Amino acid sequence: MDGRDARDVQAARQGPGQAEAERIVPHDGPIGDAHASLEHAGDAHAAHAADAHISALRAVSAPARVAEPAEGISPEELALAARNHGLPLEALRYEVTPPGLHYVLVHYDIPTVDAAGAEDWTLAVRGRVRTPLTLDMATLRSFPAVTHRVTMECAGNGRARLTPRPVSQPWLVEAVGTADWTGVPLRTLLAEAGVEPDAVEAVFTGADHGVERGVEQDYQRSLPLSDATADDPEVLVAYEMNGAPLPPQHGHPVRLVVPGWYGMAHVKWLRDIALTNTPFTGFQQTVAYRYRRSADDPDDPGEPVTRIAPRALMIPPGFPDFMSRTRVVRPGPVQLEGRAWSGHAPVTKVEVSTDDGDTWAEAALDHKPDKPDGSAGSAWAWQSWRTTWTAAPGTHVLTARATDAAGHTQPLDQPWNRGGFGNNLVQRIPVICLPRGD
Ligand SMILES: Nc1nc2c(c(=O)[nH]1)N[C@H]1C(S)=C(S)[C@@H](COP(=O)(O)O)O[C@H]1N2
Ligand SMILES: [Mo]
After folding, report:
1. Any idea where the domains of the chain sit in the sequence?
2. Biased-composition ranges for Basic and acidic residues (predicted)?
3. How far apart are CA 342 and CA 350, in angstroms?
4. Which of 67, 112, 138, 217 could be 71's S-S partner, Cβ–Cβ 3.0 to 4.6 Å?
5. What is the model's pLDDT at position 43?
6. Which residues on adjacent β-strands are paired with residue 136?
């Protein structure tokens, strides 16, 4: 076990809300616990057997790593990429992503929850609250419902474009989608339960279970209480996506939606919300989803991954080559359009380059569609943009760059970190302009 590995297990072993009398998830914990308890009991033979089990598990649930310089995408990464699909870039045409085209990211298995199972589903609200709640779906639906249009993006989007490449779900640029999420504001439920004055975080637990880098766990993430109870962005406990019950892969029957934050915060198949009086130190909080800029310091705790960095994507113009995806366009005016978003502040500028970043021109930003009640469009949904390019025969590289009102902009050099998070390096679209009939 190398130093980094030991620290992973150490961090996860602390578990959520340790200061609480009761552990949040009693069965949650690293595989290594079996060994520790046996050794404690002085049973050397059993401890040896447990060691064998631990090393067998470690062989299939290895520490995170970065690919060797010439190493291609492995069959394991391909299997992940086939499960966790992205948004086909032509679907950027839709303001609200049609069902099935929104990107999907699932760490373990999609829990099977049929209609009958959804009837029996309960969501607990407990921990540092005055009155613990057990809410079934009918009760959740009985609270006044709100709908928010939210652009969600996986924190790993762009990972496979990094050099060296962190080995994990190999997203290029397509891990994004926008949906109308309907549910109850989280702060309504917390007000109903009554927040104790010493509560500092809310820990969210999904129904899915797996092992990751040797640590067996339920999928869990936390939010600071101030974010959990804010009114803008307003965190939702959502049970509908685009006006229909959540699809299985998006968290049926209920999930968290945290506008402006990367996807990992939006806990799906939500079954438990626990307020704690100490910060949560679970695997997905302190081991995964950290920006660690150094390639070789095993003790770097990194910075937490939170809000979405700005990104613009262009709808690839013209038509594609099947294998290379290189675009073919005709000479003359070509509409270039796409969408841009940021989890920090509204997008204020999109620039387009048709010469691989040598020169840039500002694109026009469209008016955001108003909400059904006539108020201004959602601040947490993407923004469409357009410009016209006069294509001349030859090869070109198109690119776009977003800037938000808080002054964040997309880099032209890769922002590398060991987990491959938040890589909003500008997209590059190679295009061949061919006169018709060539
Ligand atoms: N319970 C649970 N919630 C989860 C995940 C998960 O694996 N389990 N994946 C997270 C990650 S990393 C992302 S990017 C988003 C993806 O949401 P989507 O599949 O609905 O697009 O869900 C988040 N919520
Ligand atoms: Mo993600």
Report:
1. 3-30+64-304, 311-433
2. 1-10
3. 12
4. 67
5. 76
6. 122
